[in-house]
UniProtKB/TrEMBL annotation:
Chain segments annotated as transmembrane: 30-49, 61-81, 140-157, 169-186
CDD domains membership: HATPase, HisKA
InterPro entries according to UniProt: HATPase_C_sf (IPR036890), HATPase_dom (IPR003594), His_kinase_dom (IPR005467), HisK_dim/P_dom (IPR003661), HisK_dim/P_sf (IPR036097), Sig_transdc_His_kin-like_C (IPR004358)
Organism this protein belongs to: Natronospira bacteriovora
Domain named Histidine kinase: residues: 330-540
Protein name: histidine kinase
Keyword line: ATP-binding, Membrane, Nucleotide-binding, Phosphoprotein, Transmembrane, Transmembrane helix
Length: 544
């Protein structure tokens, strides 16, 4: 058992809390400082006092012995207190008992209670009430009183002219008893206050750490600037938006970011105008700032919120798409029954032996188009009944290898026809695995349908990071002719298709699945390659 473990076993059935234990150790250290100072003062006073002085007037040798013993006890106690061995209870009892014995020797050697040195005995009584509790402090006070009375009795038999002071001894004894009771009560209240203060301090520290963690993990940028335009707080999102690499404090904003300086100056010139949006440091994200005042109205600070403008547009789009989805799902459900009747009637008509060749062609046209309409209805209903997103932290590199292996094993693509580029380190993302599989499967199918069928790779999967931002991405690349620029902006709209056999919902559903996982699906042309890019949310700032 270690010394600190022994400290907690202070002899009673209850183990004192850590705050109480620390208070007792501090009390012993303060008592030892007083002991050392008292020994030094007595020693100097003994040699500097005039002839016939009070200190050691009766027994100089006893006085010097007690004073040197007090100093030696202070030195030894300093070592034991530093090592905290033995435990606090044993040290307190031992030190206070030796103090009482040495004080009595000093009192005897200096002439008894009439010198006023009996007041020194208040120190061990007070120390016992603070460290040892009421029971032991009362016991110590009673023993001290008995020893004083016994000392006065001895003085009556002494040949010296010192008269005994029984009344003085009785009054001191009564004061010792009162001090032990009151001191024990005050020490208990002090320990309770200490424990409460420690608990409140711990709660405040935990709350401060929690607040700091929440602020740093928010996707919304937060900046606090004081009335002298000095930066006081900035979280990670705001630092990315403003291109600030390090976190500064009490630094003028003009030395950190030109964009932040312009925002603060615009706020000061026109405090009631809506601040203008700006492009973030990455050159892509549109940032919408908002301001509010903090602190003293005479010298207010400024709290700046920096929000990703695409998120606001995304929320508005989500509301419109949600309403459109409910409306479309209702229409699709109502169309399903008559469409089934038409298809069934067309199948019965196809079985008639009286149909001519041209009529059979019309019958086939009806069948193909009813089947196409049915696929559209199935897709719309599937999208409207989509289950709640279940994002998980997943190894994107490992997932891509498994996807490529599955494409090869199912015979859809030979291994040589689907390329894969992954970095050496693992890349982790948050996304629903089923949704990711559905999106990539759709993009690979489009690449096989529209890409060039050359001798090399038909499609290539590439994993990397978005430049200048900590966001992973997955690219599906093919060597097709690409999409004309006037059509590229419409490819993610529902029912937009360039193929007579397509429903126009594949890319729309793929983007919807990415949006609900806080990812972004983009199309771009890179040289002779067609690239569909999935930009995942920052895995360090994912908030559910």
């Amino acid at each position: 058992m270690t010394e600190r473990a022994k400290d907690e076993q202070v002899g009673g059935r209850d183990t004192p809390p850590r705050a109480d234990l620390n208070l007792r150790w501090r009390s012993l250290r303060l008592l030892n400082l007083f002991r050392a100072g008292l020994a030094l003062s007595f020693l100097m006073g003994f040699y500097l006092q005039p002839a016939g002085g009070m200190l050691g007037a009766s027994q100089e040798g006893v006085f010097l012995f007690a004073t040197l013993g007090l100093g030696l006890l202070a030195i030894v106690t300093a070592v034991t207190l530093r090592r905290q061995w033995p435990n606090v209870r044993i040290q307190a009892i031992g030190q206070l008992s030796i103090d009482c014995a040495l004080y009595f020797m000093i009192l005897w050697a200096s002439g008894g209670l009439e010198t006023g040195l009996g007041n020194l005995l208040f120190i061990p009584v007070a120390g016992a009430s603070l460290i040892l509790g009421s029971r032991l402090s009362i016991t110590l006070a009673a023993l001290i009183t008995l020893v004083m009375l016994f000392q006065e009795i001895l003085l009556t038999w002494s040949p010296d002219t010192v008269e005994p002071r029984f009344t003085h001894a009785g009054i001191l004894g009564a004061l010792f008893m009162i001090m032990s009771v009151v001191g024990a009560h005050l020490s208990r209240r002090l320990r309770e206050s200490e424990a409460l203060a420690l608990k409140r301090g711990l709660d405040l520290r935990n709350l401060a750490e929690l607040n700091d963690y929440i602020i740093q993990q928010l996707r919304t940028g937060i900046v606090v600037v004081d009335h002298q335009d000095r930066l006081q707080l900035i979280n990670g999102s705001a630092a990315q938006f403003l291109g600030i690499t390090d976190h500064y404090r009490n630094v003028p904003v003009r030395n950190l970011s030109r964009q932040l300086t312009q925002l603060v100056e615009a706020r000061r010139r026109k405090p009631y105008d809506r601040p203008p949006s700006f492009t973030a440091a990455d050159g892509e994200t549109l940032v919408v700032p908002r301001f509010t005042e903090l602190g003293d109205p005479d010298n207010p600070g400024t709290l700046i919120f920096l929000e990703d403008g695409s998120l606001q547009s995304q929320r508005a789009q989500e509301m419109k798409l949600a309403a459109l989805g409910r409306f479309t799902a209702s229409i699709a459900h109502e169309l399903r029954n008559p469409l089934s009747a038409i298809r069934h009637a067309n199948q019965l008509l196809a079985e008639s032996p009286r149909l001519q060749e041209e009529e059979r062609k019309l019958n086939g046209i009806i069948e193909r188009h009813t089947e196409r309409v049915n696929r559209i209805i199935e897709t719309v209903l599937k999208l409207s009944r989509r289950e709640q997103t279940d994002p998980r932290r997943m190894n994107l590199s490992e997932w891509a290898r498994d996807f490529r292996r599955e494409m090869t094993e199912t015979g859809k693509l030979p291994e040589s026809r689907i390329g894969l580029t992954v970095p050496e380190e693992d890349i982790w993302v948050h996304m629903d695995p089923d949704h990711l599989y559905q999106v990539v499967q759709n993009l690979v199918d489009n690449a096989l349908l529209h890409g060039e069928d050359g001798p090399g790779e038909r499609v290539h999967l590439r994993i990397t990071y978005l430049p200048s931002r900590n966001r992973p991405l997955l690219e599906v690349v093919d060597h097709g002719p690409g999409i004309p620029p006037d059509e590229a902006e419409h490819i993610f709209e529902p029912f937009y298709t360039a193929s007579p056999r397509g429903t126009g919902l594949g890319l729309f559903v793929a983007r919807e699945l990415c949006d609900c996982n806080r990812a972004r699906l983009e199309y771009r042309r890179q040289g002779n390659d067609t690239v569909f890019r999935i930009v995942f949310a920052d895995p360090e700032r994912w908030l559910t």
